[in-house]
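Structure ticket #2291
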Amino acid sequence: MKMDKKRIVVTGGAGFIGSHLCERLLEQGNDVVCVDNLFTGRKDNIRHLMDNPYFEFMRHDIIEPYYVEVDQIYNLACPASPIHYQYDPIKTGKTSVMGALHSLGLAKRCHARVLQASTSEVYGDPEIHPQPEEYRGCVNPIGTRSCYDEGKRMAETLFFDYHRQHGVDIKVIRIFNTYGPRMAVNDGRVVSNFIVQALTGEDITIYGDGSQTRSFCYVDDLVEGMIRMMNSRDDFTGPVNLGNPGEFTMLGLAELVIRMTGSQSKIVYRELPQDDPKQRKPVIDLAKTELDWEPTVALEQGLEKTIAYFRERLAL
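Resolution: structure written out below.
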């Protein structure tokens, strides 16, 4: 997609998704400011970008205000896996809410467009399947996942209130399960868990009976959707689902990873955590219509690249 050169902030830019987004925006000829406090982000994810004169890294926690002159803001900053967002749930809630406020305040001051990376977790443990954007969700407001689920829901609220009250130019996406290179080894999410366990010969842990489903989107597809959303027509705010509608059971994914890695790992079952969604699949009709976007990378193709990355990380 051809665009004019812009100065763009990516909060959470040293994270798994954020680093891929920074890389892509630089390839398109933009100035990129990566803002990250490195709680879950890693300098290794952006090391290859550091020598680019159009890339700037700012170590900063967006719970505090940040001041730069920008044209666009991608607000991705927030721990996104249960193991990380439950480590300090109060901090997670503050990151979602205060981070949204500070990103919106910056957008208002600079007359910039700001995109909120929301999540399929706003749908909670859904009673409607698959999930369209109109579905309002089934979320436990006092559970162990609430700091993330409700934090992201509040962030969406703030975005639309700033849009209505102050005319801020907003875009909101809801990201479904995404995977690919640069996921953390200790990420705690299912794809990285299964791959690391398979490569190290550990038992592969399935929570519940393995019948619960997820839809897995390769990171390159997601980044394409994010950029298309940021540069979509002015009166289209979203929210819009970005994810792969291909649906897989946890057991099916575990068996596929074992086959693709040639692992001797055994599958073991553990109790399902509180409020863990039993099924998750996006309706992406809106993304197809408004953004001319849909995923192109098949699960096996994406897993091949992700497994290769983890083999290198684990020096196997």
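Closing remark: Residues 210 and 310 are 23 Å apart (CA to CA).
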